[in-house]
Amino acid sequence: MDALQLQNLMTIVGGVLMLAGVGGVAWMGMTELRLRAVRRTRFAAGGATAAAPQPRAPAGVVGGQVMTAIRRLGQQSAVRDPAKLSVLRNQLMQAGYFNREAPVIFLGVKAAAMGVATLGVVLTLPMLVKGQGGFGGVMLATALSGGAMLGPDQVLKVRRQKREREYSEGFPDLLDLLVASVEAGLSLDASVTRVTEELDRRYPNLTIHLRMLVLELRAGRSRKEAWGSLADRLGIADARALATMLRQAEDMGTSLGETLGVFSQDMRAKRMLRAEEKALALSAKLTVPLILFIFPCLLGALLLPAGIRLMQVFGKH
After folding, report:
1. What is the pLDDT of residues 163-182, one digit of tens each?
2. Most C-beta atoms within 10 A of its C-beta, which of 19, 45, 124, 313?
3. Cβ distance 103 to 85 under 8 Å?
4. Residues with Cβ < 8 Å from 288, sequence gap 6 or more?
5. Distances in Å between the alpha carbon of 121 and those of 110, 127, 160, 215, 254?
6. For the chain, how big is the Rg over CA atoms in Å?
């Protein structure tokens, strides 16, 4: 295939992609009109909902317009697939986003990122067709597409993993303080309030969830539901096990102090096992850096003087 045929082929592919883009924009417009009709119908059916006050836009005209556009895009995505909202809301709460509109904003950011990436890819197509962009244009289009598709989810995943590490590290300390408070004569609810004050500086993100637990208990929510909600917000196995243990202890009428003591000992044993596992895995993790970086330097330091000496000896002869 010569250069002319390749250029014609790329022109045809670019035209097809542009037609697909125009068709996609038209389809999105029709979908937008349909969704607006659905929303108008819902608002007309429940007048109180339609009269509810809308959230205030942030300061600044440009920022308010951007946030309004992001909310609209997020609402469209939420209307298309409302079943995923509860799962997404739990994931955002585990990552530390407690705002009621957090799922809508997140979906709007994903949609906006896809739109920006699509626009960037379309703008790079003429350069690729004319052969001006080369490999750099392809890499730019790939980076835009990958960042739009994986960027928001990856940011959310990293934030969740960081929070979960803090929760896992602070949970044994939480149990130790709970055991000490319960054995000192405090009730479980008062112990949680006291422990929240003690852990505020060391584990600030964990104490946010504990304060929410205290507020739920003060509002009259049952202990089973409150601790189960805490386990869902934290998203770690230890919290779920504690919620199950407290529910079983309350149903069977066992001593809460003894139950928490046994569970705390089990948590300390698990933390020690995790530390030993990391220590034993250190030698295996150091093997690759040792072979790639340390061993060549050591080999060069040992053989270089001998090589120089041999060169000098053979140079004389």
Report:
1. 888 888 888 888 888 888 88
2. 124
3. yes
4. none
5. 16, 10, 31, 49, 64
6. 30
